[in-house]
């Protein structure tokens, strides 16, 4: 678990739970784009939970497959990203909120337009809500750590 503050440009990886997987060249990794907060490291703003939760919009349109349900793959139509608040640092505050660190984690849920299993007739994936976990894979900076 990294205690380095997460900044804009840091990476988060969204990992599926269960048998489904990302498809179409998407590895599950997205970069954080933090708002312009007063605390910056190397000219990059430090990220808050809200900056991570905004990544839900970048999951829209991503494709998935699950077992035989793969031709065509399904597409994300709705997404929710939540942050485990206990994994934020309490050492610093930005506008009264605890910043994220390299050890911040959470969950995500997606609703999909289902992938299809080939057949006559074709069979859509009956599970249209998928979930998983996410974690910071790169904090975006190596200079500032917190306890």
Low-confidence stretches: none
Give the C-alpha Rg. 17 Å
Strand arrangement in the largest pleated sheet: 2-6-7-8-11-1-3
- Work out the helicity level: under 10%
Mean pLDDT: 94
- The separation of the N and C termini measures 11 Å
Biggest sheet details: 7 strands, antiparallel
Let me know the number of strands: 11
What is the overall shape?
elongated
What is the H-and-E element order? EEEEEHHEEEEEE
Beta strand %: 35-45%
Task: Compute the number of helices.
Answer: 2
Structural class: mainly beta
Question: Key features?
Answer:
2 helices, 11 strands, two-stranded antiparallel ribbon, single chain
Structure in words:
- The protein contains two helices and eleven strands.
- The chain is mainly β and 147 residues long.
- The strands form three sheets. The protein has a seven-stranded antiparallel β-sheet. It has a two-stranded antiparallel ribbon with strand order 4-5.
- The radius of gyration is 17 Å and the shape is elongated.
- The mean pLDDT is 94.
Give a summary of the structure in a few sentences:
This protein has 147 residues and is mainly beta.
Blueprint of the fold:
Blueprint: E1 11-16, E2 20-23, E3 29-31, E4 40-41, E5 44-45, H1 49-53, H2 56-59, E6 63-66, E7 69-83, E8 105-113, E9 116-117, E10 123-124, E11 129-138
Antiparallel strand pairs: 1-3, 1-11, 2-6, 4-5, 6-7, 7-8, 8-11, 9-10
């Amino acid at each position: 678990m990294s205690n380095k503050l997460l900044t804009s440009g840091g990476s988060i990886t969204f990992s599926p739970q269960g048998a489904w997987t990302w498809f179409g060249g998407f590895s599950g990794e997205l970069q954080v784009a933090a708002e312009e907060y007063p605390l910056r490291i190397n000219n990059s703003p430090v990220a808050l939970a809200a900056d991570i939760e905004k990544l839900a919009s970048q999951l829209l349109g991503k494709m998935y497959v699950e077992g035989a349900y793969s031709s065509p793959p399904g597409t994300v139509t709705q997404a929710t990203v939540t942050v485990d608040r206990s994994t934020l640092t309490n050492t610093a505050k930005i506008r009264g909120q605890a910043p994220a660190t390299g050890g911040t984690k959470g969950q995500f849920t997606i609703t999909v337009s289902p992938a299809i299993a080939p057949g006559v007739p074709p069979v859509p994936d009956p599970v249209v809500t998928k979930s998983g976990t996410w974690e910071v894979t790169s904090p975006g900076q190596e200079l500032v750590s917190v306890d």
